[in-house]
């Protein structure tokens, strides 16, 4: 059975989707962009600050569902510019210091609201 996961500690969905859904012990987190849930606006700064906020948002959703970063099995990272890959990777690596999940990273033409990075996540408990 599908369960909808929602927390005020992560940004509200900006379209017809849920922050996350859980089914059969797996958690599927929608792509997160660098919105600070306290202000509803993007964090100031560049790719480093945006990636940090995206991962904080993911962490809040993981926590709301009873998961942790160690439970993440797959991430998909979308970047507005592959020149930002190394800086994004440096921040991302802090959240997965051991046994990191499988991952794909792509450059895309444009991300929602002009974000520099969006990350979607799958976790398994």
Shape: globular
Mean pLDDT: 96
Structural class designation: alpha+beta
Instruction: Count structural domains.
Output: 1
CATH class: Alpha Beta
| CATH H level, superfamily name | RutC-like
How large is the share of residues in beta strands? 25-35%
The CATH architecture name reads 2-Layer Sandwich
**Rounded Rg:** 13 Å
Q: How many E-type strands?
A: 8
Order of helices and strands: EEEEEHEHEE
Which bin fits the share of residues in helices? 10-25%
Can you walk through the features of this model?
α1 (47-64) runs parallel beside α2 (85-95). By secondary structure, the chain is of the alpha+beta class. The chain has one domain (3-124): RutC-like (60s Ribosomal Protein L30, Chain: A), CATH 3.30.1330. The mean pLDDT is 96. The protein is globular. The chain is built from 2 helices and 8 strands; from the N terminus they run βββββαβαββ. The protein has helices at residues 47-64, 85-95, and strands at 3-5, 20-23, 26-32, 35-36, 41-42, 72-79, 102-107, 117-124. Strands 1-2-3-8-6-7 form a 6-stranded mixed β-sheet, with helices on one face. The two termini are 15 Å apart.
């Amino acid at each position: 059975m599908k369960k909808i996961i929602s927390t005020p500690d992560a940004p509200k969905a900006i379209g017809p989707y849920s922050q996350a859904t859980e089914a059969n012990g797996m958690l599927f987190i929608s792509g997160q962009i660098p919105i600070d849930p306290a202000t509803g606006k993007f964090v100031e700064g560049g790719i480093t600050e945006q990636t940090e906020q995206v991962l904080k948002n993911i962490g809040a959703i993981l926590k709301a569902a009873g998961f942790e970063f160690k439970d993440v099995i797959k991430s998909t990272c979308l970047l507005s510019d592959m020149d930002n890959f190394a800086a994004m990777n440096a921040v991302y690596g802090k959240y997965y210091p051991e046994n990191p999940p499988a991952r794909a990273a792509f450059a895309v033409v444009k991300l929602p609201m002009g974000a520099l990075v969006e990350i979607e996540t799958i976790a398994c408990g």
